[in-house]
């Protein structure tokens, strides 16, 4: 089981990768991609960075509320969702890997579960 510190570390690594990959896309890869590929890459980059930051926040909060199952579910969902959703969009944009497209909605669903679990946790008054 990952700890709050682990989620912060993973979020920091994902954030670093989001900035590096986003910069590569904006400066070096743009001439190699057509408009739909660039739009998909941009979506991946945006979701990647937003959820990396969210994972750092969640790690901090998990450290404060170490017994919280809802926060852990949300954190795992953000982590897996970011990798699956953004990762598959990057692969499709850069390598024309259409075969991996079936995982993109799984990643999106994982992100939705993360936000939903966080919302339920708040509604139950455990924040």
Q: Name the beta content range.
A: under 5%
Count of the separate structural domains:
1
Summarize the biggest pleated sheet.
none
What is the element string, with H for helices and E for strands?
HHHH
The poorly predicted ranges are: none
Looking at the chains present, what oligomeric state does this protein adopt? single chain
Global mean pLDDT = 93
Query: What form results from the Cα inertia axes?
Result: elongated
Count helical runs.
4
- The total strand number stands at 0
The secondary-structure class comes to: mainly alpha
Radius of gyration: 15 Å
Helix content: over 70%
Q: Between the first and last Cα atoms, what is the distance in angstroms? A: 21 Å
What does this structure look like?
This protein has 127 residues and is mainly α. The chain has one domain. The protein is 81% helix and 0% strand. It contains four helices and no strands. It has helices spanning 4-29, 35-64, 69-95, 104-123. Helix 1 (4-29) runs antiparallel to helix 2 (35-64) and helix 1 runs parallel beside helix 3 (69-95). The longest helix is centred in the middle third of the chain and has 30 residues, at 35-64. It starts with a helix and ends with a helix.
Topology:
Layout: H1 4-29, H2 35-64, H3 69-95, H4 104-123
Helix pairs in contact: 1-2, 1-3, 2-3, 3-4
Characteristic terms for this protein:
127 residues; mainly alpha; 4 helices; 0% strand
Summarize this entry quickly.
This protein is mainly alpha-helical. It has helices at 4-29, 35-64, 69-95, 104-123. The chain is elongated.
């Amino acid at each position: 089981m990952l700890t709050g510190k682990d989620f912060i570390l993973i979020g920091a690594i994902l954030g670093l990768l989001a900035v590096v990959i986003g910069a590569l896309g904006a400066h070096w890869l743009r001439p190699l991609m057509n408009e739909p590929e660039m739009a998909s890459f941009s979506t991946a980059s945006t979701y990647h960075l937003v959820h990396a930051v969210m994972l750092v926040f969640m790690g901090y909060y998990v450290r404060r509320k170490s017994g919280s199952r809802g926060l852990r579910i949300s954190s795992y969902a953000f982590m897996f969702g970011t990798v699956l959703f953004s990762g598959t969009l990057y692969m499709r944009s850069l390598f024309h890997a259409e075969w991996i497209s079936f995982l993109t909605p799984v990643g999106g669903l994982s992100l939705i579960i993360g936000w939903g679990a966080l919302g339920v946790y708040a509604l139950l008054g455990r924040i």
